[in-house]
Amino acid sequence: MNRADPAPTDVPSAAGRAAAARSGPVDRSLRKQLLSWLVLPLGALLVSSALLSYSVALRSAKVAYDRALLDPALSLAEHVRTVDGRLVLDLPKAALDVLRVDSLDRIYFSVTGPGGELIAGQPEMPPPPSVVPDSHREFRYGTVSGENVRIAALFLPNAEGRVVIQVAETMVKRNRLAREILFGETLPDLLVVGVAMFLVWFGVGRSLAPLDRLRAEIAERSAVDLRPLDASYAPDEVRPLVAALNDLLRDLHDALDAQQRFTANAAHQLRTPLAGLRTQVELALRQPAPPALVHSLTQLRNATVRASHLANQLLALSRAEPGGHRPDALREVDLRTIAQDAAALWVPRALLKDLDLGFELSSATLIGDARLLRDLIDNLIENAIRYTPDGGQITVRTEIADEQAVLTVEDNGPGIAAAERERVFQRFYRTPGTEGDGSGLGLAIVHEIVNAHGASVSVGTGVDGGAGRPGTRIVVRFAAAGSAPAPAGNGAAVAAA
Ligand SMILES: Nc1ncnc2c1ncn2[C@@H]1O[C@H](COP(=O)(O)OP(=O)(O)OP(=O)(O)O)[C@@H](O)[C@H]1O
Ligand SMILES: [Mg+2]
Description:
By secondary structure, the protein is an alpha+beta fold. The protein has nine helices and 15 strands. It folds into three domains: about 15-20 and about 30-220, no CATH class; about 220-325, Orthogonal Bundle (Helix Hairpins), CATH 1.10.287; about 330-495, Histidine kinase-like ATPase, C-terminal domain (Heat Shock Protein 90). It has helices at about 15-20, 30-75, 95-100, 170-220, 240-285, 290-320, 335-350, 370-385, 440-450; strands at about 10, 80-85, 85-90, 105-110, 120, 135-145, 145-160, 160-170, 330-335, 355-360, 365-370, 395-400, 405-410, 455-460, 470-480. The structure holds adenosine-5'-triphosphate and magnesium ion.
């Protein structure tokens, strides 16, 4: 008899909406901001301090090596003499060789006379500088035989004129020292920079963890979960924020409570005068009266019936809202019993429309509020009776399936178009073209009750019954008594069929 439901629509839950909000772009991360304020300046500071100490160490090493390079020049100076009016370097070759000994570098020297003539040394040495510095000594870089060298020049005033002694050495020692300073001092500094950055990154993450927890707690909540947030884990800086949020939640809770109480009171207050009005109109209708008056009185009675229905629906809605019912009224209840009670009310009404209202009831116990569950079943059956044309079929089923207590109400009426299946749960929404009276609150009440029980509801197509209409099937799934129930009222209620 039943057709498979091709594509039932799951009504989005508050948790689903929260998840959708979470997936939105987050372009202003506090962590990134803190890190860019901390890590970048800190990194720049450490890197420049490492570079500074590298250059200072290099400079000191250069001064020491330069001083050492000047020593052989000073030794040579002591041996420059004038012999027979000629400048000579009075030093045996063996002593010169000793001067030039170095385990790593090659050493060159030259002694030039006032005319720039070479008195002693290697001819490949560059000519001395033409300008004499005040200190009479000068250090510079140059090349000898294509090799980079450091050159020390010593200027000697002499009776014959100016004598310049130059000593040059290759750069092996100096380059090696520069590498040692770089790897021995600067790299450890850079390592410290890396470790510091990691510690900052890690520390910021740890410090922000309570905010993450707070965010997760808020994101998990439904719009109706207004319990105060747990401030115990929040650091001192965040506690005022949590306290302010809790104040807001309390105010919101009070405001919702007041609104819910107002709706309940107003609906309740309206019911008595409306019932009186209806009685009076029905009494008047029994009196002989001209047809025009009978017509007006009939209209008045219908309007009164509609207004009473609206008041009843408003009352049921406020009962279903959080705060409208007591969570401690949850008991172990059997859907079968509730559906059996409802049958007594609805079977006579179904008969008026020649509808085949069938009940296939198996025991299906759950922890719930019997009053609310009755409202839920009433609204689903009322819709099926109201919207299924005369002679149609309606089936109400209760059962346990996959550890869930499942209520199904299906009919072979006009069906609810796939595009409308979410909207029909909105308050006061009726699908365009719907005939007959109705306030558009029935499925909104169902939605609230589903939420209050942590259940799920889905809408699909119903029984065919040969009528050629799609029909409607509404399935509500509750955690069966004894299985792990979803927490009631957390908004994670309405999920997949
Ligand atoms: N079984 C059904 N078959 C066809 N359409 C339905 C069915 N149930 C609900 N609908 C559509 O969904 C709309 C919303 O239903 P809902 O019960 O919320 O409001 P209502 O029946 O119009 O008013 P109320 O129940 O408050 O008297 C209805 O107007 C109707 O168009
Ligand atoms: Mg309805």
